[in-house]
Structure prediction request, 350 residues.
Amino acid sequence: MSYSGVINKYLSYLPFSEGVKPVTLLEGNTPLIEADNLRKDIKSPAKIFLKFEGMNPTGSFKDRGMTVAITKAVQDRAEAVICASTGNTSASAAAYAAKAGLRAFVILPKGKIAIGKLAQALIYGAKVIEIDGNFDDALRIVREIGEKTKVVIVNSINPFRIEGQKTASFEIIEVLGKIPTHHSLPVGNAGNITAYWKGYREWSEKNRTSLPKMLGFQAEGAAPIVHGKVVEHPETVATAIRIGNPASWKQAVQALDESKGQINIVTDAEILSAQRLIASTEGIFCEPASASSVAGLKQLIGRNYFTDKDVVVCTLTGNGLKDPDTASRDVPPPLAAKPILSEVLKLIQS
Prediction:
C-alpha cells in the first residue's frame, strides 16, 4: 500500500474519525539514520540515530503538525489561518494553506528570518507581515487576532499541531523496534519536545513499553527554560530557536520531569561545530537549530552520561538549505585555479 501521510497512517492516535479527508503533502516517513561515523568521532558509548525531519515536504518537522491543524481548520470551515514564526512554521502554514485553498497570514520579526524560509512563505502565497520586534511580540499579536477574529491560529498553541508532531515518535519506534533510552531535541517554542513525549507516552500505554529520558537543548542567548525566566531579547545564530518565552514552556518542563530528563545550554559555537560535524561525518545538511541536539549530546558524552547499553535519537528539525547563508559563512571558500589540468591536479594533490 502506498504511503499517504501521517493522518492516514496514525489515524487511531489522532483526533479524527474514519473518513476524514486529510490536507496532506505526504509528510512524515522521514529517515532514521544510524550515525556510526559520528559515534566514532565523538567517542560515544551509546548508539546514535538521527531523525532527519528536514526531509519533510517544506523541509522541517512543522509539516507533521500542520497537516493536522489545517485539516481541522478545513473541517471547521475556516477561511484563513495565521501564525507567528521564526521561519519554519510560516513556510509550513503557507504551503498547507495553499493546498487547502485557505488564506494564510504570517507575522515575522523583521530581519530575524533565514532567507530560505521567508522565500517559502512568500512563494506559497501567504500574506507576510514583518514587525519591528521579536517572535514573542509576533505571537502576542497573533493571539490577539485569534481572540478577535475567526482566523485560526496554527502555531503550536493549537493542540492539533502537537497531535501531528507526536507521530515522529511512532516512526522511531517502528524502525528501532523499541523506544530509545534517550531522545535529544533542540528547544525553542518547546512544542516538539512536548509532542515527542506525548507520542512516547501514548505508545507506551498502549503497548506496555518503557519510556525514554528527554534531553532538551537551548541556545545560550535564548535559554528561558534553563534560566527559569523570560529572555526579553533572545539572540542566537540558530534562528529557529531564537525564542525568549516558549508557548509550550510548562508542557516541556513536565516532559523533562516525568521522563527524568534534563535541559541544558549550548553555545552558538557548539551549534555550528555540530552542524559541520553532522555534515562531514554523516552527509546530512541540517539547519543550525537542528544541530543543537547533537551539540548537547556531545556535552553529555563528555560528562560520561551514557553507557554502551543506551540508544539515543537526535532529532534534526530542519534542512540546511533553509539557511544556507549561515552555513556558507562558517566554511572555507572554494579553491581557485586557472582552467589548466596541471593547476587543478596540484590543488587535488596538495
